[in-house]
Amino acid sequence: MDKNTPDQPVRGVSAEAQEPDADTQVSLDLPDDALIIIPVRNLVLFPQMVVPVGIGRESSIKAAQDAARAGRQVGIVLQRDAETEEPLGIDLLRVGTLASILRYVTTPDGSHHLICQGEQRFVVKEYLPDHPYLVARVQLFEEPEQTSSEIEARMLQLKTRTSEILRLLPQAPAELANTAAAINSPAVLADFVSGLMDIKPSEKQDILETFDLLPRLDKVLGFLVHFAEVLRISRDIDQQTKERFEDRQREVLLREQLKTIQNELGEAEGNAAEIAEIEAAIVKAEMPEEVEKTARKELRRLQNMPDASAEYSSLRTYLDWLTELPWNVETEERIDIAQAREILDADHYGLEKIKRRILEYLAVRKLNPHGRSPILCFVGPPGVGKTSLGQSVAKATGRKFTRLGLGGVHDEAEIRGHRRTYIGALPGNIIQAVHKAGARNCVMMLDEVDKLGRGSAQGDPAAALLEVLDPEQNAAFRDNYLAVPFDLSKVLFITTANVLDTIPGPLRDRMEIIQLLGYTETEKMQIAQRYLVQRQLEANGLTKEQCELTDEALRAIIHSYTREAGVRNLEREIGSVFRHVAMQVAEGKVQHVRVEQADLHAILGTEKHESELAMRTSLAGVATGLAWTPVGGDILFIEASRSPGSGRLILTGQLGDVMKESAQAALTLLKSKAAKLQISSELFDKHDIHVHVPAGAIPKDGPSAGVAMFVALASLLTDRPVRYDHAMTGEISLRGLVLPVGGIKEKVLAALQAGIRTVLLPARNEKDLEDIPEEARTQLRFVFLENVEQALDVVLEEAAVQAEG
Ligand SMILES: Nc1ncnc2c1ncn2[C@@H]1O[C@H](COP(=O)(O)OP(=O)(O)OP(=O)(O)O)[C@@H](O)[C@H]1O
Ligand SMILES: [Mg+2]
């Protein structure tokens, strides 16, 4: 290391590095041992370091320029306080660094820099007055040449640490490391390292002022260790931030790999297990090719979906639907007509014509399994066995049975499902029913086609149903939810309805109508004794030994507690009786209960249906008609009365238009026959006639009350009462002919049940008598009418009641 004295000329200052007049050596008016001092705010120059020193103050610029011109070295000294603007000697620290000026640089922005090379430490002895800048006498510090094992050890430490730090410093040029490695003086190395370290000026100054080598090395080492630590930590932080940034992508990647690996190893769990399960289900479902393709595509989508998402679970549900449908599941079809006959007989009493029709249907299917068989439609009042017949058909053909109600369905989506984009979407009820049946050749009973809602903004359910039933189209029935075709062509459809006329026309055209009529009391007795009693005993946990229901009691239930065409309420009432008995048996009060007719009042309450007929006596102006309703037949009273007026006809009782017209026609007809019936025409002119039909529950429309209307009016105006046990039905023409009407069996049965003895029917309905059970035929007298006058002869009593009384 050179040990220059302040008065020695500056070495190594190249000419071109000087300011314009630099090559002109000027001598300064300074003592030889005096040194121009450049105060610096935050820089500590170590010996051996080359650093640019920015100079801004006028005095410093002059000092630097003078020194450069004179080719003299300068002293770089740190200010005590960086903020001091024009520092005096006392504002500066005592220890500074002798520096050679390598260059004086003025940058384009007008700032001045000295490129200085540190040479040697000094201590300021005194500042000299009367100079335009700071000039001081200084004492240069000679580095001692001493060495010791302790110094050697620290030197070694210093070198290792230094090379370590240089490795940690991201942009440290390779020369630095080489330079450091080449230094073999501890003092030089310490200064070199101190200059490089990013520590505070005050800390650097502290090192500069430590003249003793050993403590100086310790300090440098201390800083170095700390600095290395800081570097390492900051590098770690750097690394961590970078890692965190990449973590998320990495996680996605890893999860993917994990799934694949788990799949490969067959030790899949959670989602992967689920996927594998669905995959297996797809294979097992034996779907048509197109459907399988869709299923696999959706499965792939599922695989790449986070399993907590809502979409995942809805897609999962969809795949469950796809895989669980009976794409290729069929029960073996076996039609043995003899056996089918047995099954139908075992389940149903009577219904001969219907059973025969069903067997014919099955026979055709047996002979031509792939032919188009019509869709059966069972039409009839509630509780007559439509549904249970459908179940028997399933049993007889070895098919699964499933039913779905169409009553009140007014949205096409209920039949065809909602698209999957719809929240909470599911397949329509056709696909649901097939799913429930679990076989694609099931018997599907579509109940209440007559109550199917009309087309609306939500689409026409009847149109959707047509597609379901149409053999041309239903091989590729498309449910909106499934969005793939399902083959419905193997399904055996049976529909049911209470009435025919509300079934949408195009639907009705496709169906083979089978009418079920109401049962007579005797038939009901048989059904109850053979089926219902046993079934209700079982349902209530009773045995024949524990409970006995006498025939009289059963008949009373049929007669006085139910009024229906079918046997549904009958079964319910029998159930009520048995529940009552079950209570007693369960309480341990009795072992055996015999229910007699007299007990019914206590169990079922008062009789629900008294014979209305019994409450009436023969009166002039009241005739008994017969009505047909969707729930069976009923009797209907037509009441006529007159009051002084101007010949108006008043109709009350919520009559339909056709029935009103029928009343008009009856009156007109009666007027035309007034003379023959000995009715004075004055009666018509001076009176208003009021026709009323009580019993609000029965729908009153249709022309079939024509005869009864005519009879009621004739009775009123002739004052001849109508026999109370006679009932009639028939349409009338204006010429007085009696025209045929429908619902004869129900009407006749209702009449029988109501206690009627004689029934007047249109002559042209005589053929319908063959439908009427033997029992009814023997108990009733039938009178067939060609024209209305014949009715009057039969039903009107000879003398008026008033006349008698
Ligand atoms: N002829 C019969 N023999 C034996 N049981 C019968 C007969 N007719 C009806 N039943 C029984 O009566 C009950 C009602 O019959 P079902 O449910 O089939 O009536 P439904 O015609 O379908 O009525 P709804 O129109 O109300 O659906 C069933 O328990 C059924 O087994
Ligand atoms: Mg039913």
What does this structure look like?
By secondary structure, this protein is an alpha/beta fold. 43% of the residues lie in helices and 17% in strands. It has 27 helices and 24 strands. Strand 23, helix 25 and strand 24 form a beta-alpha-beta unit. Helix 2 packs antiparallel against helix 3. The N and C termini lie far apart (161 Å). The model is unreliable at 1-23 and 800-805 (pLDDT under 50). Bound molecules: adenosine-5'-triphosphate and magnesium ion. Magnesium ion binds next to helix 12.
Query: Can you list the strand order of the major beta sheet?
Result: 1-3-4-5-6
Tell me the span between the first and last alpha carbons.
Answer: 161 Å
Q: Catalogue the unreliable spans.
A: 1-23, 800-805
Total helices: the number is 27
Q: Quick summary of this structure?
A:
The protein has 27 helices and 24 strands. The protein has 805 residues and is of the alpha/beta class.
Question: What characteristics describe this protein?
Answer:
binds adenosine-5'-triphosphate, binds magnesium ion, alpha/beta, 27 helices, 5-stranded parallel beta sheet
Write the layout of secondary structure elements.
Layout (H helix, E strand, L loop, with lengths): L33 E7 L9 E6 L2 H13 L3 E5 L16 E12 L5 E17 L6 E6 L8 H20 L5 H9 L3 H11 L4 H9 L3 H53 L5 H15 L3 H15 L6 H15 L12 H11 L4 H16 L7 E5 L6 H12 L3 E5 L6 H5 L12 H9 L5 E5 L13 H9 L7 E2 L6 E2 L5 E6 L7 H5 L1 E5 L5 H19 L7 E3 L1 H11 L6 H19 L6 E3 L4 H5 L17 E8 L2 E13 L4 E4 L4 H16 L8 H5 L1 E6 L13 H13 L7 E3 L2 E2 L5 E2 L4 H10 L4 E5 L11 H6 L1 E5 L2 H8 L5 H4 L1
Parallel strand pairs: 1-3, 7-12, 7-13, 8-9, 9-12, 14-15, 18-19, 20-23, 23-24
Antiparallel strand pairs: 1-6, 2-5, 3-4, 4-5, 5-6, 10-11, 16-17, 17-19, 21-22
